[in-house]
Design brief:
Elements: H1 4-13, E1 15-20, H2 24-40, E2 54-57, E3 71-74, H3 81-87, H4 90-100, E4 105-115, E5 123-126, E6 135-136, E7 141-146, E8 157-159, H5 170-174, E9 202-204, E10 210-215, E11 220-222, E12 231-240, E13 244-245, E14 274-277, E15 280-281, H6 286-289
Antiparallel strand pairs: 1-10, 2-3, 3-4, 4-12, 4-14, 5-11, 6-13, 7-10, 7-12, 8-9, 8-11, 14-15
Helix pairs in contact: 2-3
Bound molecules: 2-oxoglutaric acid.
Length: about 290
Amino acid sequence: MLTEEQIADFDRDGFLNSGPILSTAEVDSIADGLAGVLDIGPDGFGEGQPQPVSYRDLRSGAAGASANPVWQIVNIWEASPAFERLIYHPYIVKAISQLTHETDLQVWHDQIQYKPAETGGATTWHQDAPLWPIIKPMTPVSAWIPMDDADEENGCMWMVPGSHKWGNQIEFLRTQGHLQTLAEFNNLAGFEPPGGAAPTPVPWPVRRGEISFHHSLTWHGSPFNTSHRPRRAIAIHYMTGAARFDAGGNHLMKQFVDLADGAPMSQAGPHFPVVCRDGEPVGVPAQLRSAS
Ligand SMILES: O=C(O)CCC(=O)C(=O)O
């Protein structure tokens, strides 16, 4: 359980570090799960084999592979029992319930972001909710879990305190896509928040075993990994019982939603597992407890 003070810090800043929560064995088990998926590779999954929804280099473009890749794997929980167990983790689920002030939660999707040692690229400044136009309202909260200590050298996230209270600013953030290296990442320029003060980005190191939480309107991103260490992390994006389907938008996960416009996402089906009901985590399903 989070303390009242932690919840108040999150409400003020839009992000929070839980402190040490996960055991070495728990983190090892997801790191092993990721290693298995990386071994298979983006094109190695056979038909009918459990597999992620997407596996690609976020930095590759029309010109092909990028010299500075960020490997994104969406819904690794569908390919790896270790990650499927993680989405139900009672501490994480309870914390998300406390931070969203909601009693019913579902997984919206997850995503690995893996920045390889020395060459890992940037995840440019953004807010999550505006990139998720098929669900409303813009209230999800995410848990971000590193498999390596994440610090400034290997491309930890940066956050802007209080930015979750400034509404949808994605068009401004898109103008900041040139900020990619550690040296330039705090140079956000050209936005005046309500109240007049300048946005003050802060590096957000998170150690192995700790869990970081961020609101879906919090400004965040992460620069290059120039260290000799990988930076492997998973974000689990949770939506609340208030989430409704907006059929007018588009998103990778839309292919799995067969609902009328405005219908509750609680009816969206098995790609969006329910993890909390009436304020209580549902727990890890029995068949998953010993699956490897
Ligand atoms: O892992 C990263 O550096 C960025 C992750 C992210 O954008 C997110 O969790 O919303």
